[in-house]
Amino acid sequence: MRSPLPDYLTEVLRGCADSSGALADYIPELARADPDRFALTLVTAEGAVYSVGDDHTEFTIQSISKPFVYGLALQQRGFDAVLDVIDVEPSGEAFNEVSLERNTGRPLNPMINAGALAAHALVLDGRQPEASVEDIRSLLSSLAGRELTIDEKVASSELENSYRNVAIANLLRGYEVFEDDPDEIVEGYIRQCSVTVTTKDLAMMAATLAAGGVQPVTCEEIFSRDVVRQVLSVMATCGMYDAAGDWLSTVGIPAKSGVSGGIIGILPGQLGIAAYSPRLDDHGTSVQGVAAFGRLSRDMNLHLMDAPMVAHSVLRRRHVIGEGDESLTLLELQGDLQFTSSEGLVTAVVDEPVETKRLVFDLSLVRTILPVGRRMLLEMIGRLHRDGVEVVVIDPEGHLPEPDTGYGFRPQVHTSWEDLEAQG
Ligand code: GLU
User: Is there a contact between 320 and 130 (Cβ–Cβ < 8 Å)?
Assistant: First the structure.
């Protein structure tokens, strides 16, 4: 059998064909793009790639670099240092608007140019001008899983026409948002925007965010989970500039667009999506790209705010083994222990009290345990122990390292049933 996904995606490209919109021409080199190119790529958080259309066409990343550079600044400088300099409020204005906080000059968010220039300066951190560009090119390469290069023609074309960005950078320097030479920051930022990518590269970058910061193919841990959460939050509220609210309510996927015609979207835990088509609407966003995202969201139920399915029960099976004093209760857990699934487990044990002296939690089929799931499981183990039940854990994958319950009790942990039986 052939996977139906590529056929479906080809059908999406066909269904979204639209020749309205215009190429960006404020950067003359961008106006030379072939207006009819259209590509769509999906990469799952596990690294499966589905790609159709002109997915070998290279284009410059432009504003889609902004969320990643913001992530890099957070990772390098820490949250406090970054939040001091760049706010996280939607501006509701165009990408190149001078959206600065009154009195302090702090840019409203890192997705508009003012915030992106400030984020670039944070990465530069007073070093030689080339250092930030190289850090960023190398970060984007790790995210894409291949070496990316800079399109110097597009960079110099933008640089020759960068009056507005130069004005914004000078204002930021005036407010002492950074202390570097504004021209150097603009040049670095423009070169960051000129890194060349395909939709496959972008979807891989998006999938890395979907996978909590781990590149799904190389398995490199690029961003911490905290950084990913911050980046996705800002993308959801500010990624689509003055269309952010409309986008979140209709498409419902945290996203970022760029003036060369790319759009990325991230479905946390599931999917990275990238579209490319260079004709833009009035917001500076790809017309066909917006249509494709809308269609995918509707057809595949990707809207983030769609009431999620009730979390799968993590209690797969409960049974009592043996009789009398030798008997034990076995609780086989499965899937993901987050808040609601752990709550279901707690309720199951509260509603049907454990009547044996011994209890085994078997975590062999557990996939992940979030910190809240760990806390709730350890709390249960501590309370069961307090009630006189001797609890042991089977944990072949090491999901529950150093299980201190806080009740002066640490359960024994075994890697298998055989190990449990061998040790009695
Ligand atoms: N380099 C572009 C600029 O600063 C990026 C804008 C965008 O992609 O939205 O004007």
Answer: no
- Split into its structural domains, the chain has a count of 2
From residue 153, how far is each of 53, 56, 159 by CA, in Å?
25, 19, 10
Say whether both 280 and 361 belong to one domain.
Answer: no
CATH of the domain at 119: 3.40.710.10
24 CA → ligand 1 middle, Å: 10
Answer yes or no: is 189 a known binding residue.
yes
Instruction: Ligand 1: list residues with CB < 6 Å.
Output: 62-63, 95-96, 113, 158, 165, 193, 258-259, 284
Match 């557990």 to its residue by tokens: 366
Residue 189 is a catalytic residue? yes
Q: What is the pLDDT of residue 310?
A: 58
User: pLDDT tens for residues 62-75?
Assistant: 999 999 999 999 99
Same domain, 247 and 327: no
Distance separating alpha carbons of residues 209 and 205, to the nearest angstrom: 7
Q: Is residue 310 part of a domain?
A: no
Q: Grade residue 311 by pLDDT with cuts at 50, 70 and 90.
A: low
3-state SS, 219-279, equals CCECCCHHHHHHHHHHHHHHCCHHHHHHHHHHCCCCEEECCCCEEEEEECCCEEEEEECCC
Domain hosting residue 388, numbered range: 315-422
- Residue 101: pLDDT band with limits 50, 70, 90: confident
Identify whether the C-beta of residue 263 lies closer than 8 Å to the C-beta of residue 257.
yes
CATH number at residue 399: 3.30.750.24
Say which amino acid occupies 256: K
User: What does the pLDDT look like over 336-365, one tens digit per residue?
Assistant: 998 888 888 998 999 999 999 999 999 999
